[in-house]
Every structure is written in C-alpha cells, then in structure tokens.
Specification:
Layout: H1 5-12, E1 15-16, E2 21-22, H2 23-26, E3 29-34, E4 38-45, H3 53-65, E5 73-80, E6 95-103, H4 110-123, E7 128-132, H5 140-143, E8 152-157, E9 163-168, E10 170-172, E11 175-179, H6 194-206, E12 213-219, H7 226-234, E13 239-244, H8 248-263, E14 268-276, H9 284-291, E15 296-301, H10 304-311, H11 324-346
Parallel strand pairs: 4-5, 6-12, 6-13, 7-11, 7-12, 13-14, 14-15
Antiparallel strand pairs: 1-2, 3-4, 8-9, 10-11
Helix pairs in contact: 4-11, 6-7
Bound molecules: adenosine-5'-diphosphate (ADP).
Residues 103, 106-112, 139, 274-275, 300, 302-303, 306-307, 310, 325 line the site of adenosine-5'-diphosphate.
C-alpha cells in the first residue's frame, strides 16, 4: 500500500514550531513516497540553525504513527537549504541574508554578540561572514584574535575581461572577517564625514571577496543612524538584532535604536538581553520587546568565560565548549535565523513607528 491521503494530510497540516504555520505553507516537505514496507518523508530545514529539530521530528513520527498501514514504517530524510533573497546585487554582494547587529549605546556587548552569532551560525554549518562596520570603535579583529593581520588586495579579471582589485578577508575559525580596524593603528582615531563613511562601507561590501555567503553579519556602530542608513540604501537587509542590557536606561536607548532602524526601513528581528543576571537584573528586555511587539531572541548571562575569550581573542574557540554563555549564544543565533525565515514567509511587519 502506498501513502494514504490521511497520512499526507496529517503531515501537511502539522504546525511548524516557531513558524506557527502548517508544514505545507512552510514549504519544508519535499516529498512523501511509500511502498508496502516504508513511507519516506523528505524534510528540508530552511536553515541548518533551525531550532527544535529533534522535537519536531518526534512530532512528525507521532503524527504519522496513527496513519501508517500495518507493517509500514516511517523514514524521515532531512536536509537543509538556507533560504534568502540575495538582495546585495547593486554592490555585487552574494549573501542570502544580511543581518545588522546594533545597540542604543556602547558597552552593552554588541560586538561580542555580533561575533558570537557569526560563530554560532558557522557551528551549525552555515557559510558566514562578519563585517565590522563599527568604524568608531572596531573591536572585531581583537575579539577574533586577528588584530595583527592585514587583508591582502588581489587583482582579478572578470569574465568580460575587466580588471578589478578584490580585498581578501581575514579568516578566523572558519568565518570571513573584514574591519576598518585592519587598516588603522591600534590607537588611531578617525573622523568620519558622511560621504567618506558611505564610501568606506560601500567598498567593504563590494570589494571584499566574500564569496557566496548564507549570512553576512554586520556589527553596526552604537546609537547613530548614519551607517544603518547607508546600508539600507545599498542592500535589502534581512533585519537588525538590537542588543541591550537589562537596566531601564539601557532599554530606553534600545527603544530609540529600534525607532531609528524603522525610520531607515530596516526590519527589526528582535532584541537580545546581554549581561543578564544579578548585577543588572534580568527580564527587562523581554518585557520591552513584548511591549513593542518584537521577539526577545534570548538572554545571555554575565559569564566570565565570555569576557576572557573576548579579551584573549578566542571568541571562535569557545564554540568548541559548552558553557552557559555559549548555549545562550547558540539559542540567539537559532532564534535570529528562525525569525528571518518567518519574515520571509509572512513578509516583514510594517514599521509602526514612522517619524519622518
Ligand atoms: P560593545 O560592542 O557594545 O561596545 P563589547 O562587545 O565590546 O561591547 O563588550 C564590552 C565588554 O563586555 C567586553 O570586555 C566583553 O568581553 C564584555 N562582555 C560582553 N558580553 C558579556 C557577557 N555576556 N558576559 C561577560 N562579559 C561580557
């Protein structure tokens, strides 16, 4: 006996956790075939970082169990394919999803979270790049242990014969990194005028040899909207993740940052509470996110292992360990990836805080 309609129906109508839509709408079922002995279900995750995979597979097995003919067993074959829109055409960037990480103010751990999301997505098997666009205080080279390196320029010939120069990004623990920090002396400050800033960001996006990426993470400067505006003019971003600490003042700044992203038409994917715990408190971000109708993507505890890894330039290697901070970072990366899939299925929510 092949596959019964009842079984097809039961599987197609299962609600996908996190997405809140049936499997058929989520377009994750790539085939149901069967013979007398076996029913084979092909399931494609929309990102390898999709959260709750084991639990959902168990749900599928349970739903199928009642609909299998006697003697039939179920086999689920899984694969994953990162979905995305490739919206970097104008600057020649080939990244399926561009995620900006911002904050209302400095010192909340924005660069640490941006770096951690990058490595966490890589640990799930995604191709990831990290652009440090925090031109006022580029700290990514330090956090990733590559501060003394310098990217090389490489001449290349395009298929039409045109000669161009590409900058080869620095690799650290499997991810590609580019930062203004590579081009400055450690104690050198730069005054950025608008057009110069615009040109530097454009160059980092278009002249870096990023290759094909599933995700490009961009560490934005805190607060101000100039880099965010430039980015939104150059690319279609998947969205912004806003990092804050739990105290009230920090949350007020985060709310301002959210309003700024909405003004420059960057959808906000959600908020992350960093340094959650006894010192600054806990849960304030979730409450603020709920009030603003946004997801809280996770709470990262104050964890000495994170600070030490950052100080020593070992943010990449902590993903070989399994402390509370690392687990929280993985969760944030998964929720961020999930939120992007959700927005791509539903279309982004319309910004409700327009003050133009
Ligand atoms: P920002 O980019 O917002 O200015 P950073 O990412 O540079 O902030 O972080 C500021 C400092 O806080 C760094 O020393 C970093 O290691 C530390 N830090 C960030 N997040 C945590 C955390 N969850 N636990 C412990 N230390 C943290």
């Amino acid at each position: 006996m092949p596959v019964s309609d009842a079984l097809r129906q039961a599987l197609q109508s299962l609600t996908v956790p996190g997405l809140g839509v049936p499997l058929s709408v989520a377009k994750m079922l790539k085939g149901i075939e069967g013979d007398d002995g076996t029913v084979r279900v092909k399931l494609e995750w929309p990102t390898p970082a999709f959260p709750g995979q084991d639990e959902f597979l168990a749900t599928i097995r349970q739903a199928a169990a009642g609909q299998l003919a006697s003697g039939q067993s179920l086999e689920i074959e899984t694969s994953s394919q990162v979905r995305g829109k490739m919206t970097g055409g104008a600057v020649g960037l080939k990244a399926k999803n561009v995620i900006a990480v911002g904050s209302g103010k400095g010192g909340v751990g924005k660069s640490t979270v941006a770096t951690a999301i990058t490595y966490a997505l890589h640990s799930f098997g995604c191709k990831v790049g990290l652009l440090d666009a925090d031109v006022y205080g580029p700290s990514v080279p330090h956090l990733t242990g590559v501060a003394t390196q310098q990217p090389m320029a490489q001449p290349m010939t395009l298929p039409d014969g045109k000669q161009i120069t590409r900058i080869i990004p620095i690799e650290s623990s499997g991810v590609k990194i580019m930062s203004m920090g590579f081009f400055l002396k450690p104690d050198q400050a730069v005054i950025w005028r608008g057009p110069l800033l615009h040109r530097a960001i454009t160059q980092f996006l278009s002249e870096t040899d990023w290759g094909d990426l599933d995700y490009l993470i961009i560490d934005l400067p805190p607060g101000t909207g100039d880099v965010a505006l430039t980015l939104s003019q150059l690319l279609g971003l998947a969205g912004a993740v806003v990092v804050c600490t739990p105290q009230q003042v920090a949350l007020l700044d985060a709310v301002k940052a959210i309003s700024m992203y909405r003004q420059v038409k960057i959808p906000v994917l959600g908020l992350v509470e960093n340094m959650s715990g006894e010192i600054f408190g806990r849960g304030g971000t979730r409450a603020t996110a709920e009030k603003m109708g946004l997801p809280c993507l996770g709470e990262i505890p104050m964890d000495a292992a994170i600070r030490i890894a950052g100080d020593e330039g070992r943010m990449g290697t902590i993903f070989n360990t399994d402390g509370p901070g690392v687990q929280a970072f993985r969760h944030v990366a998964q929720q961020t990836a999930l939120q992007i899939v959700k927005e791509q299925l539903q279309g982004p929510a319309l910004p409700s805080l327009e003050i133009l």
